[in-house]
Amino acid sequence: MSTFAKPENALKRAEELINVGQKQDALQALHDLITSKRHRNWQKTLEKIMFKYVELCVEMRKGRYAKDGLIQYRIVCQQVNVTSLEEVIKHFMHLSTEKAEQARSQAQALEEALDVDDLEADKRPEDLMLSYVSGEKGKDRSDRELVTPWFKFLWETYRTVLEILRNNSKLEALYAMTAHRAFQFCKQYKRTTEFRRLCEIIRNHLVNLNKYKDQRDRPDLSAPESLQLYLDTRMEQLKIATELELWQEAFRSVEDIHGLMCMVKKTPKPSLMVVYYAKLTEIFWISSSHLYHAYAWLKLFTLQKNFNKNLSQKDLQLIASSVVLAALSVTPYDKTHGASHMELENEKERNLRMTNLIGFNLDPKSDGREVLSRSSLISELVSKGVMNCVTQEVKDLYNLLEHEFLPLDLASKVQPILTRISKVGGKLASASSVPEIQLSQYVPALEKLTTLRLLQQVSQVYQTMKIQSLSKMIPFFEFSVVEKIFVDAVRQNFLSLKVDHMKGVVMFGSQGLEADGLRDHLSILAELLNKARTQIYPPAKKSSKLAEILPVLSETVDKEHKRLLARKSIIEKRKEEQEKQLLEMEREEESKRLRLQKLTEEAEQKRLAAEYEQRKNQRILKEIEERELEEAQAMLQEAEKRGKKKGKKPIIEGEKVTKQSLLELARTEQMRERQEMEKKLQKLAKTMDYLERAKREEEAPLIEGAFQRRLVEEKVLHEREHQQEVELSKLRHEGDLKEKHRLSRMLENKNIFQERVLSRRQSEYNRMRAEAREQLEQLKKAHKEARDAKRKLLYYLRGEEVRQRRAREEEEARKHEEEERRKKEEAERRAKLDEIAEKQRQREREIEERARLQREALLGKASEPKHVDFGGARPSEPQTAAPAASAAAAAAPAPTPGKYVPKYRRTEGSSQAPPSEPDRWSSGRADDRGGDRWRSDRGGGARPTTWSSSRTR
């Protein structure tokens, strides 16, 4: 942070930095001076510094710096010279506005220059490319790059100034002027979002002003000048809100104005109140609050009539007609019929706010609808003489709608009057707050009112009417619109009718005795009959009967009162049940409508997305085709121009031109032209060779003569320049000698200074060298420690790797040993199985040999049976058993190798010797040879008779 003894020094330093292009440093220097506590006494130099400071802030768009500087400057000159602060702020806003306008004009000029760059081309290539990539136009880009930053800075400027001046009673006029300029900024550039924020800022300033009433420089709203400034600001805010069509913000502005008027409890000037009620009429008309719109017109008419001395009779008549038509446009029934308690409370609160804004003070506990209603408004118009100032058409319309009973001709008589009224209107010369009035805005509401009056009168005369006849009687709308109108009226209990579309009729009234029509007729009939009876039979005047009737009358009144209370409770319960049913039905309908709306929206979104993609693809294809066609046409025009220059006919005539065909033609044309050009160049080169040879033969002697003359001239010039150089050298040598004698006196001092500088540099060098060595040693030490730590880590990692490798090798060796042992056991088991199989094969061969011998014995090939002893038969066994056994064996079917033989098949061959239970054994492994089946004879021998195996022999 730089410090200056005097403010002038800071200003000079800032100007020097600005001249060398260091604006940021200059701004920082001025900022340090302004925020310093040394310079808190105001002087004229500080004002100059602030002017330069805000200029730099605006030029560099430093809003935060500007705000800090202005706050500090306000502290300095608040009690001494407030005018200086006002001048600085005005200069600040002027510079910001000027920069924004320059950026806007520059952007417009740039856009215009870009637009007229090429009159034949519609768009530039870079604009097309940027528009396809970014989807924005050139004006949008120029606004974003040039205009938007300055507009943001201007908006920040207004906010900063309003924040600085919000609690300063000495600068109220500047605060109001800044607010007005900010409003104009929002209006000029259609900045609705910034306008809402600005209104909220001003509203918060007023709230804080009322909240903190003990501040020293707080503005006093009870003063007429302060109140007038605040009201003017709110009025301007109201005007801009209505011009930007921000109706919610306009309503809040009206509430702000009403709050100010209630705060000071003083009626403002009539000119302001006229503007106030004129804007209220617009707001209430937009919000469809026709009753309060009519009351606002009545207030406006009263003010104009009482305080506007320049009001002409024509303008007064037009304003009065607007008041009456606004009153007639109010719906003749209350729209809150059948509403819930919560809705009624909300409507009551809303009506209370509206009436307070208009200027009617109502008691919140009472019902405001009793005071502000259509009937009371019309009676007030009549009593105040407003009907005497209106045009004849409005008077006729009022009489027809409010006093005449014409159920069949009402619409036909009202229609021409409405046609004439719709043409009435124009600008008002003497009422500045209401520049223009058009009575045509009330025609739709009056047509609806005419339809309601016609239906009301027809329902009193007819019970049924055809829909076709009713449609002819109402020329304003189609019957579907009329149906919506009277459905709303029936819902609000204004009419009682039904529509039967199957029969094509409308049925008016209800069949009950409590219907409005029948009740009125019956009451009138009863009154007339009572009058006739009293005239025929006048009552006798006896005072004694009154005393007899009074006790009975009181009992009758009590009974009737109880009956009415019970009936009222029953009616309330029925209403509540009906409301619950209606709410349930409405909820169901709303849920169905939401589901249907969601499905419709999803389908619509899908359809729009598909259409968008289709249009996008078509647009791209169309642009490609157009671009190719333009290129082809350009090439065709160029080819025609070349052909016209050469005197040739057009290339293509009477056929469709395409880019490919033109490219082929252009290529052939170029080849032909290139060949012609090469022939011309060869001929020209030959001609140029002859010409060049002749030129060189002629110019050779001339060049030689010129060269000899140039040698002589250069020799003379060299000698002259050499003589001049010698003389100049002598003069310089004499001057150098004089300079040497003059400087020789300072040689000793020079040597002393040189030794001092060298010694200081040597010591500095030695110190830096020692420091460098020390740093080097420290780095070496740190590197050594890091290297040792790295080596230890590597040693640990390598040991861990060796241990893991050894563990893997041991695990692999163990698995290998287990595999070897398993293979050895498998080999031994297979050897045993092979040995068993060999024994079985030996037994098979013995059995076959024995069977062969038995067959030979049976066939008689041997004279006596041979006895072969296999070691299996006993010596004491009789020899007759062998033939029997062999016969049984021959009779039994021979077993098939590898096939299972069931029991019932095994016993078929021999009925005398049933086989014994077979002995089965098998192994669990997949390579076992199967099981054996053994059968023993009854003789008690252990001789095997039958053996079968699944193994192939």
Automatic annotation (TrEMBL):
Q: Which GO terms describe its biological process?
A: formation of cytoplasmic translation initiation complex; translation reinitiation
General function of this protein: RNA-binding component of the eukaryotic translation initiation factor 3 (eIF-3) complex, which is involved in protein synthesis of a specialized repertoire of mRNAs and, together with other initiation factors, stimulates binding of mRNA and methionyl-tRNAi to the 40S ribosome. The eIF-3 complex specifically targets and initiates translation of a subset of mRNAs involved in cell proliferation.
Query: Which organism is the protein's source?
Result: Kalanchoe fedtschenkoi
Keyword Coiled coil annotated: yes
Q: Entry's Pfam families?
A: eIF3a_PCI_TPR-like (PF22591), PCI (PF01399)
The organism's place on the tree of life at top rank: Eukaryota
Name this protein carries in UniProt:
Eukaryotic translation initiation factor 3 subunit A
Q: Which GO terms describe its molecular function?
A: mRNA binding; translation initiation factor activity
Q: Quaternary state and partners of this protein?
A: Component of the eukaryotic translation initiation factor 3 (eIF-3) complex.
- Bias regions of kind Low complexity — which residues? 881-893
* Start-end of Basic and acidic residues biased regions: 803-855, 917-940
Positions in coiled-coil regions = 93-120, 561-697
Q: Which GO terms describe its cellular component?
A: eukaryotic 43S preinitiation complex; eukaryotic 48S preinitiation complex; eukaryotic translation initiation factor 3 complex, eIF3e; eukaryotic translation initiation factor 3 complex, eIF3m; multi-eIF complex
Location of region: Disordered: 803-953
